[in-house]
């Protein structure tokens, strides 16, 4: 982590990337990141593809800050802020509505986040999904939030919800307009298919100019 000041609290989380044999073909709601169909993915081994995120909060931090692979990035990104707001909301609800509860730490403290990928970023390997899953997990541990978190991770990246669980995971389409039932659940553990091997070929490791999310929205995809 790049946090230089004394931290009141710090939590670290590591999340693997995934292979997706059944794709989510598009989004019916771009703001809530709701898919038009359910999809299935399988966890890859963390030794090969992994994102590690450290989240720290302190009364000494003057502002929220974010580092990605050692370089400072935009902490004000709307989807990142959506995840942060939702985790803090859940923490506030758990504490009975107080921001200043001293146990385990105040929700008013600024936060520093450092994320590292051991694979190419924004090169088609779903680094953003792994990053948001890792971010939500680290924030939940930091603020003492427990329970269902895949819906929170989905607010950052739709595919992030599948990375909250191991093994074979389904992202359920859901039916509710508010997206509360568009969740991930494990359909089989990582031991279900021990002979399975996944070959990943990185043809180009530079960043894509456009993220995957924009091309999957129903209004911008005429064939859906």
UniProtKB/TrEMBL annotation:
The keyword ATP-binding applies. GO terms for molecular function: ATP binding; diphosphomevalonate decarboxylase activity. Pathway: Steroid biosynthesis; cholesterol biosynthesis. Residues 26-184 form the Diphosphomevalonate decarboxylase-like N-terminal domain. It catalyses: (R)-5-diphosphomevalonate + ATP = isopentenyl diphosphate + ADP + phosphate + CO2. Keywords: ATP-binding, Lipid biosynthesis, Lipid metabolism, Lyase, Nucleotide-binding, Steroid biosynthesis, Steroid metabolism, Sterol biosynthesis, Sterol metabolism. GO terms for biological process: cholesterol biosynthetic process; isopentenyl diphosphate biosynthetic process, mevalonate pathway. Pfam families: MVD-like_N. One of its GO terms (cellular component) is cytosol. Its EC number is 4.1.1.33. Catalyzes the ATP dependent decarboxylation of (R)-5-diphosphomevalonate to form isopentenyl diphosphate (IPP). Functions in the mevalonate (MVA) pathway leading to isopentenyl diphosphate (IPP), a key precursor for the biosynthesis of isoprenoids and sterol synthesis. PANTHER family: DIPHOSPHOMEVALONATE DECARBOXYLASE (PTHR10977). Belongs to the diphosphomevalonate decarboxylase family. This is Diphosphomevalonate decarboxylase. It comes from Pandion haliaetus. The gene is Mvd.
